[in-house]
């Protein structure tokens, strides 16, 4: 929250820092070990390290037109067939 207030104060965007500060940082704060927090949070906030999020699928990459994973309705549930890679 403080980081976002400072961004607003100087009229700048989080841009390349959004994944780390908006997703990875809060996850580390909530679920990370003390060692993980110490290792990753300071460099993330200083901008020394950038974080990203990637999705792909075997034989399709990130091309949505080539996706093969499907969810099929089975009664009251959906069964997902296929696999995804999340990095």
Describe it for me?
The protein is built from three helices and four strands; from the N terminus they run H-H-H-E-E-E-E. Helices cover 40% and strands 16% of the residues. Strand 2 and strand 3 form a beta hairpin. It is elongated, with a radius of gyration of 18 Å. The relative contact order is 0.13. Helix 2 packs antiparallel against helix 3. The strands form two sheets. It has a two-stranded antiparallel ribbon with strand order 1-4. A two-stranded antiparallel ribbon has the order 2-3. It is of the alpha+beta class and 87 residues long. The longest helix has 14 residues. The mean pLDDT is 84.
Care to give the gist of this entry?
The chain is α+β, with helices and mostly antiparallel strands. The chain has helices at residues 2-9, 18-31, 34-46, and strands spanning 55-56, 70-74, 77-81, 85-86. α2 (18-31) packs antiparallel against α3 (34-46).
How do the helices and strands line up, and which of them pair or pack?
Layout: H1 2-9, H2 18-31, H3 34-46, E1 55-56, E2 70-74, E3 77-81, E4 85-86
Antiparallel strand pairs: 1-4, 2-3
Helix pairs in contact: 2-3
Could you name the key traits of this structure?
two-stranded antiparallel ribbon; alpha+beta; two-stranded antiparallel sheet; 16% strand; 87 residues
């Amino acid at each position: 929250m403080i980081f976002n207030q400072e961004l607003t104060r100087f009229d700048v965007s989080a841009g390349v820092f959004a994944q780390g500060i908006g997703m990875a940082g809060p996850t580390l704060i909530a679920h990370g070990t003390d060692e993980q927090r110490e290792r990753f949070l300071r460099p993330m906030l200083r901008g020394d390290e950038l974080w990203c999020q990637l999705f792909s699928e075997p034989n399709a990459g990130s091309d949505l037109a080539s996706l093969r994973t499907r969810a099929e309705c089975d009664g009251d549930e959906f069964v997902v067939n296929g696999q995804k890679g999340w990095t």
